[in-house]
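Hi V.,

You were right to ask for the full record rather than a summary. Here it is.
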Amino acid sequence: MLSLNTDRLNAFYQIVLDRHFTKAASNLCITQSALSQRIQKLEEDIKTTLLIRRTDGVEPTEAGHLLFDYIQNRIVAERETLQAVRGHSGEALGIVRIAGYSSVMRSVIMPAVRPLLTDATAISIEFFCREYRELLGMLKTGEADFVVHEAGQPFANATEIPLGREILVHIRNRAQHETHHPEATPIFLDHDLEDMTTYRFFDKQGQSGMEFYRSFYDDVYGLLDGVKLGFGEAIISEHLIRDDPSLVVIPHPVTVEIPFSLYFNSNKLMTRLHKAVVDCLQREVPTYL
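Predicted structure:
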């Protein structure tokens, strides 16, 4: 029976978390040489390379990702076993980390999980708001337990659970709308150069050749502030601007919907807390859209 050395596993786990030998050695209170020896012995035990050394740090190989998931599962299993021994087997306890993009995190995901936190002092939920392109990496490295992303993403080793649909609308400042000149080239506000939301919206309307200038803001709330201040127009999720008298929704013939889902690593053990989060999001998210 294969028995993996706990000290070596802990060393590997800390390196993956810190992404650097020096920092991991400091956190483990051992020398960098001792840390390197533990990793070398672990790779010899498993007979495969677990880490890729780079000039800016280290990252796990595919085998390393699998081992990291195994260690996390072992930590979770131990924690839940101790809870059962102490008579708390039916409770959802611990920390869960959820990452997503700006138009749903503050307005939908955070209020949707609030019922879990109302009476539970032993639950902590951490939220991370990131760009689309950063979310897959957070799931892969374990920085987040769940990510919220557009539906249908080809995330390897990930389970997808549909949550809801955002409806995109074209908005304009009301005062600006009253003096709008149709012949003028509009300015549309986006997150950054890689944000294709405005292009996608007008492509769905059959206006892929439409000309407009672009200006960039940090997140969806920056876009909203920019439109309210008259800096430009924007394509934004309808649930963010309901009952706002300072904005006008410009009608278009085609309704553009963006389905989004919850993703989690299929290789990781689902704790009672993780299951409670999934159940709560599936139940509560539609009420905020």
